[in-house]
Amino acid sequence: MNLEAPADHAARALLGMWLVREGVVLRITEVEAYGGSGDSASHARHGRTARNAPMWGPPGRAYLYFCYGMHWMLNVVTGPEGEASAVLIRGAEVVAGLETVLQRRKVAKPTPQLCAGPGKVAQALGLDRTFDGHDLLVPGGLELRPGTAPAGILAGPRLGIAFATAEDQARPWRFADADSRAVLQPKALSPL
């Protein structure tokens, strides 16, 4: 997989990859791509800040931010180093470590939506600010590993970006595994 590719291309390639930490393995089922300063939906739209600095690379690093004062959100940095872009991990399926995920999520039993939502993904992996800037491509901590690519991919507009321009709101930069139930609002997506 080429994480130096533009965010929308890297996003599709991330589907099916595995996120691994402390015995928990999640298969990525839903993602959203965010470009640099030219993407009004991106955290990079106002330039580099202390909060968004990991977006400038190198690719393969984690970019974590705290959303609504409640949830950590995991992004994989993509694109050439020095050009901000990242892919938000919106959803995943549990491959291994279900008991740990249930404990971290404070849920009694699994459902297909157990890790459908970016806050749920970070919670399932036990992530916090200490993983911001973490290299996902080296062993230890949190790792991104090859997985099983989806047979089909759905695409549509990104969620929760009402502040962005109409053009950026309409970009079909949300991608999902067509066969997974761990996807939010799948009816808003169409086959690629």
Automatic annotation (TrEMBL):
SUPFAM superfamilies, A to Z: FMT C-terminal domain-like
InterPro entries: Formyl_transferase-like_C_sf (IPR011034), MPG (IPR003180), MPG_sf (IPR036995)
EC number annotated for this UniProt entry: 3.2.2.-
Alphabetical keyword list: DNA damage, DNA repair, Hydrolase
TM stretches of this protein: none
Superkingdom, natural source: Bacteria
Top class in the EC scheme: hydrolase
Record's signal peptide: none
Family per record: Belongs to the DNA glycosylase MPG family.
Name of protein: Putative 3-methyladenine DNA glycosylase
Record organism: Geothrix edaphica
